[in-house]
UniProtKB/TrEMBL annotation:
Record's keyword annotation contains Ribosomal protein: no
UniProt-listed NCBIfam families: PRK07231.1
Similarity comment: family membership: Belongs to the short-chain dehydrogenases/reductases (SDR) family.
Keywords: Oxidoreductase
UniProt GO molecular function: oxidoreductase activity
SUPFAM superfamilies: NAD(P)-binding Rossmann-fold domains
Highest taxon of the lineage: Bacteria
Protein name, UniProt field: NAD(P)-dependent dehydrogenase (Short-subunit alcohol dehydrogenase family)
InterPro entries (UniProt xref): NAD(P)-bd_dom_sf, Sc_DH/Rdtase_CS, SDR_DHRS6-like, SDR_fam
PROSITE patterns found in the cross-reference section: ADH_SHORT
Amino acid sequence: MDQKVAIVTGANAGLGFATAKKLCDEGIRTYIIGRNKEKTEKALKELGAYARACILDLTELEKIPQSIRQIAAEAGRIDILVNNAGINMKKEFLEVEDVDFQKIMHTNVTSVFTVSREVTQVMKAQGAGSIINISSMASQYGIPKVIAYSASKAAIEGMTRAMAVELAQYGIRVNCIAPGFIKTNMSGKALDSDPERKNKVLGRTPMGKLGAPSDIGDTVYYYASDLSKFTTGTVLCVDGGNSIGF
């Protein structure tokens, strides 16, 4: 994998960072896309020699094509795309305004489409590539107060299947990961401060624990490598059984 080139969006923290770390550790030149220059450059130093930075606000769709072309020109190819970047909003359904809903959809869906379309042009010319989209448990079952986020992640899973069918003819595989409750600094603090919610999460998770960010990184690597060479159009829950827990 030392000649492979990857792009990971939203890679300066959390699951994106863990994913980029796994790819870099496996010798893959990895471009981390982030809109905050300071955070992205800090992550770059921690990730090491295989990491490269691309400062880009994905909500500015018109800037995406040029950024992807620059990466392709510099690296010579793009083998792996991980669409990880996304935002959330917690609001009662009746309080969500149109602008709130559209903001989530713009970042979580439209930008994923635009990045994927541009990267696909490079992968098509190569005759190979792997695109990995990041969904959520919010697409697997109903969670209150996250209507826009849930809609956006359901859209990602639908896009995954449609892309997989259409792009297979070009040697491009498209798969999706739906993380369960993963212990990041942010989620860990949130659950620790709300024992009732934490107990509910663990109570319906058969494995009885939260996942680690590296669990997502490992799964991305599976989809990115030839280990999954005959796999496309799938949505894999990495959740300790939470989605089927009772």
